[in-house]
Structures are given as structure tokens and as C-alpha cells.
């Protein structure tokens, strides 16, 4: 009677071995060391999502990974980087997803050796199952080893940057309409600030990726085959273009914030000018009325028959002349 297969932890998304022809064979975690013990050119690809510490310790034992790399993979607050540990190297990159009208960031940690590839996802990150499925449809390419899987993962991460950048561009176009609106809105400046914050976070994720890809291409000790390097150069070109777009958008958001605040200041100045103009108009009758309210005995036209009408006429004429002048200088 066959014993039931051991349950696979939920955080293990994929655990498979690929032979020299690129054909897949699902294996257990305990069988990893047995597969690597046979020098047949095959390699192992393990995909994890937010694994427990005990599982990472298990993988360290199976793949003989460095303590520092395992420690980094346990804590999902790493800066993007690439570090070599003998014949293996460790990569940490930031991923991004648009969730609930906001950009959420996660991390992917990758262990790469001559015969294995381990991806560890944390936080906001799409599964790499479509990446594996696409490569499995091209076994000749997959036969080039784990570096092909590494390229596919990094390319997938960079491709997911592009729609987010496009959404940033659409949001910026919409905000430009609000910047030049007639009325001031606190929400507009808040949205501009939030957009600049997210663009800055995107830049912190994208810019180090360029350095990581450059090292993969130019460092011989990392063991990237020459046949795979052109694919990494293609990803480098894509991420450089995304970085340039992000830098341009950050400058445009900064300019939009400056223009918006300047327009608000100008609008407030126009309101102050109008208030000052109307105050000037009111000052004319107030001044004349205050003179004749002093109760002096000898004042011009005080006892005249038409003094009241004359005084009203003087006030009206003076006010009209001042009104025309203020209109001419655009204070009203």
C-alpha cells in the first residue's frame, strides 16, 4: 500500500526539477539535495511566498546557502542589491502593484546557484507561475539553466512597472485640469503630494534594478552564460526607459505643485485687491460724512437750502470717478 505524499507547505508555490532538455519534474523539498547530488545538468526551481523561518532553514540545508543571505530573506525590508557568496549569489529587488488606487510595494529575494533558482516573495507581488509556464513552453531556452529563470523573473517584475507608470501619467493628466481650475481645492495639492510620494518610491525600486542588471551582465564570476546576457541587456533597456519616465513625471509633478501654489497666491492677491478697491469706494462717503458729523458751527454749505443735495452729488461723483479708475487699473 502506497504511503500518502507529505503535505506541501502553503507558502511553497512551486518546487520542480528541470533536466537538460528543459522538461519539468515535480519534487519534494526533501528530494532537492538528492537531485543536486546527481551531476546530470538538471537544476531545481523553488518558488516561495512569505515562508516561515523553519522553511528557509530547510532550504539553507538543502542548497547550502549562506547564513547572511538567509537572514536577509527572512526580513522583508531589504534595499535592492546583489551579493555574491562563492558560487551562488543573492538578489533583492522591489516589486509594485496597484491596489485600491494606491501603489503597494513588495520584495522578491532570489537565490541563484549553478543548479538552482529560489524565489522568495514578500508583500505586494504577483505570482511567478505565468513566468514558469511560459518558459516550460520553450524547453530549449529553459535548458540553459537557472539564469534563464532569473531573467524571466526580473523581466516580469520590470514589465509590471510599466502599467503603473502609465497610470501615473493618466493621473497626472487629470490633475493638470484641476491645477488650472478656477477654484482652489485642498484635495488637489494632497493628490499631487501623494503622486510625488509614490513616484519617489517607484524610483527607489527602479533605479537600483539598473545596477543589478549591469552587474549580472558585466561580472564574469556570477556565471551568466553569454547566450543569456542579451536578454538581460533587453531588460536593462526597459528598466532604464521606465526610470527616465519616472524622473520626467517627478519633475512635472513638482512643477505642477509650484504652479498650483503660485496660482493660489495670485488668486488670493486678486481677492485682496478687490477688497481694497471696495474699501476705497466706501472711504469716500465715510470721509465726507465724518466731516459733517463734527458739529462745528462754521462749515461750508451747512445752512444752505440745497446743501444736502449738493453734498450727495459730490459723494456720488467722487465715488463714480474712483470706481472708473479702479476698474481701469483692474482692482474691481
Topology:
Blueprint: E1 12-18, E2 24-26, H1 32-37, E3 43-49, H2 53-63, H3 67-74, E4 81-85, E5 88-99, E6 102-113, E7 116-123, H4 129-136, H5 139-142, H6 146-179, H7 186-218, H8 229-291, H9 307-328
Parallel strand pairs: 3-7
Antiparallel strand pairs: 1-2, 1-3, 4-5, 5-6, 6-7
Helix pairs in contact: 2-3, 6-7, 6-8, 7-8, 8-9
Task: Characterise this structure.
The protein is of the alpha+beta class and 332 residues long. The protein folds into two domains: 12-264, Beta Polymerase, domain 2, CATH 3.30.460; 265-328, Methane Monooxygenase Hydroxylase, Chain G, domain 1 (Up-down Bundle), CATH 1.20.58. 57% of the residues lie in helices and 16% in strands. It is built from nine helices and seven strands. The protein has helices at residues 32-37, 53-63, 67-74, 129-136, 139-142, 146-179, 186-218, 229-291, 307-328, and strands at residues 12-18, 24-26, 43-49, 81-85, 88-99, 102-113, 116-123. Strands 2-1-3-7-6-5-4 form a seven-stranded mixed β-sheet, with helices on both faces. A hairpin with a 5-residue loop joins β1 (12-18) and β2. The relative contact order is 0.08.
Tally of distinct domains: 2
Mean pLDDT: 85
Distance between the termini: 97 Å
SSE arrangement, N to C: EEHEHHEEEEHHHHHH
Instruction: Please state the structural category.
Output: alpha+beta
How many helices? The count is 9
Strand order across the largest sheet:
2-1-3-7-6-5-4
Amino acid at each position: 500500500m502506497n504511503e500518502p505524499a507529505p503535505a506541501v507547505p502553503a507558502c511553497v508555490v512551486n518546487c520542480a526539477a528541470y533536466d537538460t532538455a528543459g522538461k519539468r519534474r515535480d519534487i519534494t523539498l526533501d528530494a532537492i539535495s538528492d537531485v543536486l547530488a546527481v551531476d546530470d545538468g538538471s537544476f531545481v526551481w523553488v518558488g516561495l511566498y512569505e515562508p516561515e523561518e523553519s522553511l528557509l532553514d530547510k532550504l539553507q540545508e538543502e542548497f547550502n546557502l549562506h547564513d547572511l543571505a538567509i537572514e536577509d530573506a527572512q526580513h522583508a525590508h531589504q534595499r535592492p542589491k546583489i551579493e555574491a557568496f562563492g558560487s551562488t549569489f543573492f538578489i533583492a529587488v522591489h516589486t509594485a502593484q496597484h491596489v485600491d488606487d494606491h501603489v503597494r510595494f513588495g520584495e522578491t529575494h532570489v537565490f541563484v546557484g549553478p543548479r538552482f533558482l529560489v524565489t522568495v516573495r514578500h508583500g505586494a507581488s504577483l505570482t511567478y507561475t505565468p513566468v514558469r509556464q511560459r518558459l516550460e513552453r520553450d524547453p530549449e531556452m529553459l535548458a540553459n539553466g537557472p539564469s534563464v529563470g532569473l531573467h524571466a523573473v526580473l523581466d516580469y517584475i520590470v514589465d509590471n512597472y510599466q502599467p503603473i507608470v502609465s497610470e501615473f501619467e493618466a493621473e497626472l493628466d487629470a490633475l493638470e485640469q484641476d491645477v488650472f481650475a478656477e477654484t482652489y481645492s485642498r484635495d488637489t495639492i494632497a493628490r499631487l503630494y501623494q503622486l510625488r510620494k509614490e513616484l519617489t518610491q517607484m524610483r527607489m525600486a527602479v533605479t537600483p534594478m539598473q545596477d543589478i542588471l549591469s552587474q549580472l551582465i558585466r561580472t564574469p564570476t556570477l556565471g551568466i552564460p553569454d547566450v543569456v546576457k542579451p536578454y538581460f541587456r533587453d531588460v536593462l533597456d526597459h528598466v532604464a526607459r521606465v526610470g527616465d519616465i519616472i524622473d520626467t513625471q517627478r519633475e512635472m509633478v513638482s512643477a505642477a505643485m509650484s504652479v498650483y501654489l503660485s496660482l493660489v497666491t495670485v488668486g488670493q492677491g486678486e481677492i485682496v485687491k478687490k477688497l481694497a478697491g471696495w474699501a476705497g469706494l466706501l472711504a469716500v462717503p465715510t470721509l465726507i460724512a465724518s466731516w459733517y458729523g463734527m458739529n462745528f458751527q462754521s462749515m461750508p454749505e451747512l445752512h444752505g437750502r440745497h446743501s444736502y443735495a449738493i453734498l450727495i452729488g459730490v459723494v456720488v461723483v467722487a465715488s463714480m470717478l474712483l470706481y472708473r479708475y479702479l476698474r481701469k487699473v483692474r482692482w474691481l
